[in-house]
Every structure is written in structure tokens, then in C-alpha cells.
Write a structure and sequence with these properties.
The complex is a heterodimer of chains A (174) and B (163). In chain A, strand 4, helix 7 and strand 5 form a beta-alpha-beta unit. Chain A is built from seven helices and five strands, in the order βααβααβααβαβ. In chain A, 56% of the residues lie in helices and 11% in strands. Chain A has two domains: 93 residues, no CATH class; 69 residues, no CATH class. Chain A has a five-stranded parallel beta sheet. Chain B contains seven helices and five strands. With 163 residues, chain B is an alpha/beta fold. In chain B, strands 2-1-3-4-5 form a five-stranded parallel beta sheet, with helices on both faces. Chain B has a single domain, classed as 3-Layer(aba) Sandwich (Rossmann fold), CATH 3.40.50.2300. Classes of the chains: A alpha/beta (174), B alpha/beta (163). Chains A and B meet through helix 5 and helix 6 of A and helix 2 of B.
């Protein structure tokens, strides 16, 4: 990593999933880099308000799910995961960026055109993450690395490579 | 924050409008080709797009503008062109595709007019999204008469010897 890092929801969730008693190899593989990054960030690290909302949504969903392999995601785990993110924010290791003006309209544009032009999926909250990371890069005048475990970002940037001038995608599962 | 984009192949005009906008404390993104303009539109999604009728290395005219309208119906579209006269401008406006059509030939105050559009866009950008306006624009875009658009495109191009 050479510049600022933007974490989407999946990256934050993967770190939390790596913290259960018996994490899967995939969660260790993808979550450990996020743990290392946020322990002592060498570069600015951010997500957006939607990322924080989604994080709570996913963590509580996993907490409610008592079926294998989610039994380890109990209340203690959920509270610890949320506390960890809040500590990151409070101690300014992770900043929360507001979605730029018109981000939601832009997200509607991006998801609709991806389906209309290419028949491909690009979820609306992923679009909000991409729009926010792009605006951050534009503001900083340098490229931002977007960490995710969601393959849809790579697919989108392959279709619209001009976003790659602002955001490079790092898929933590690879 | 990007709120206005101008797509025009006339470098002198782009630079002049950008300079005037900058002096007025306004920001304007510019592109010289349709592809470059569309790329900037994808990335920044400005509230205002000022677009020429006849852009190099692209299809002509209203079909291109319709593409932007389809991508984001609520965008304010201003057509600024030396290829259209006052009569064309009125016909184009009557199709409800653009919010304003301005002839570079017959509008002596075109730069001032564009500056006012950019100023308004800067002001709008400070406000939260008005979803009633967005939905209304969406309905308006859906009702655009594509056949009438094709006819007018053809007519304008014939008048200018472009087709």
C-alpha cells in the first residue's frame, strides 16, 4: 500500500470474523491485513457513514444467526466487534467520510448503467463506497486503495476503467 | 466539489468560460470530446452539463444529450452550439430534452448566460437532494419522444449540411 486506504464494509466485517475463537482460514487470510492496518495505520484509513451502518447491520445479522458456521458470532463477539470499530474511530485510526453530495443519485446512475449496458450486477451500497472513495481521491489528488472482499468492485472497474485513475481495488480474498 | 461540466471541442471557448468562472469563484470541469465528457460525468456526476451539438469523433447531437439524460434524469442540461440557430433552439427546447438551448451565433450574451447557469448549479449543490424533483425528472425523461428527437436531429443536420 502506498497511499490512503478505504475500507468497505466487507473488509471491516472480515476483521471481526477473524476474531472469533476458531476463525476460518479465509477469515484469517482476509481479516489479518485489516487488523494489522488498523492497529497502527501507516497511511490515512477511512470508510463512509454507509460503511458504519452496514457494519452494524451485518454484525447483528451474524449475531442472530445461530446456524453453523455462525454459532461463534454471539453477543459477546458482536459487542467486541462494534467496540473495536468505535475505538478505531474514537482514536482516529479510522475516519468516517460523509458520502459526497449527490452520491445516492450517482449510485443509482452507476448501478442502473451497469445492468443496462452490461447486464452486470453492481450493488447500490458498493456504488456509494466507490463514489465516496473516488471523491476522497479527487480531494487528496492521489489514488486511494479500496480494500474489500467483494469481487463486484473489480468487475465494475474492469467495465469502467476510468474509475481506476482514482481508486485501485485490493481484494483481500485473493 | 464538481457541480458543472462543459463538453465542447472549441478550446478558446472552454478556456474563456473556465477563466470567467474561475474569476467569479466558480469551478468548471471541461472536456473536449464526448468520451472524455462521459468519463467525467460517470466519475463526478455534476448537477449541470453544458454540451455542444457537434462533437468530434462522436455521433451528432441530440442522441448524445439523451444519453446523459437517461443516465441521470435530474441533471440540468444546457445545449450550447454554433450549429444551431434561434429556431433550432426553440424546437429543441420544445422537446423537453434539454433545459436550455443556446445558439452561439445568435446569443450575444452566451458566456454570461453560461456563467449564470454555473452559479445556479453551485448554489443547488449546497442543498440536499430534492427527491420530488429527481422523481419528476425521471418521469419527464421517460416521456421523451425519441422519434421526434430523431426527426429534429436529422432536420438540424440537413440544415447545416452535416448529414
Amino acid at each position: 500500500m502506498s497511499g490512503p486506504v478505504y475500507l468497505d464494509t466487507s473488509a471491516l466485517v472480515r476483521r471481526a470474523e477473524a476474531a472469533v475463537l476458531q476463525p476460518t482460514p479465509r477469515n484469517i487470510h482476509s481479516g489479518t491485513p485489516v487488523t494489522t492496518l488498523l492497529t497502527s495505520p501507516p497511511v490515512p484509513v477511512a470508510t463512509c457513514e454507509v460503511g458504519l451502518l452496514e457494519f452494524h447491520d451485518v454484525v447483528t445479522m451474524l449475531w442472530r444467526d445461530s446456524n453453523p458456521p455462525y454459532q461463534q458470532h454471539d453477543e459477546a463477539w458482536a459487542e467486541s466487534a462494534i467496540s473495536q470499530v468505535m475505538a478505531d474511530i474514537a482514536q482516529e485510526r479510522l475516519s468516517i467520510r460523509a458520502a459526497p453530495a449527490r452520491a445516492y443519485e450517482q449510485a443509482i446512475t452507476l448501478v442502473t448503467m451497469t445492468t443496462r449496458m452490461h447486464g452486470r450486477k453492481f450493488r447500490v451500497w458498493d456504488a456509494v463506497h466507490l463514489v465516496t472513495a473516488t471523491a476522497w481521491a479527487s480531494e487528496l489528488g492521489q489514488s486511494v486503495e479500496l480494500w474489500t472482499t467483494d469481487g463486484d468492485f473489480d468487475g465494475f472497474v474492469a467495465l469502467y476503467p476510468h474509475f481506476g485513475q482514482f481508486v485501485s481495488i485490493k481484494n483481500l480474498d485473493n | 466539489m464538481v457541480y458543472a461540466l462543459m463538453i465542447d471541442d472549441e478550446q478558446a471557448l472552454r478556456e474563456s468560460v473556465q477563466r470567467t468562472a474561475s474569476l467569479a469563484g466558480l469551478e468548471l470541469l471541461t472536456a473536449s470530446t464526448w468520451d472524455e465528457g462521459l468519463t467525467l460525468f460517470h466519475i463526478h456526476s455534476p448537477d449541470l452539463v453544458i454540451v455542444d451539438y457537434n462533437l468530434p469523433e462522436s455521433r451528432h447531437g441530440l442522441q448524445l444529450i439523451a444519453e446523459i439524460r437517461k443516465l441521470r434524469p435530474s441533471v440540468r442540461l444546457v445545449l450550447l452550439s454554433g450549429y444551431i440557430d434561434e429556431e433550432d433552439a426553440q424546437e429543441i427546447e420544445s422537446l423537453d430534452l434539454v433545459d436550455r438551448a443556446v445558439s452561439k451565433i445568435t446569443s450575444p450574451n452566451a458566456t454570461e448566460l453560461i456563467l449564470n447557469e454555473i452559479r445556479s448549479a453551485a448554489h443547488r449543490a449546497l442543498n440536499p437532494t430534492n427527491w420530488v424533483d429527481v422523481a419528476t425528472a425521471h418521469q419527464r425523461a421517460e416521456s421523451t419522444d425519441r422519434a421526434a428527437l430523431d426527426d429534429l436531429d436529422h432536420k438540424i443536420q440537413q440544415r447545416r449540411g452535416m448529414s
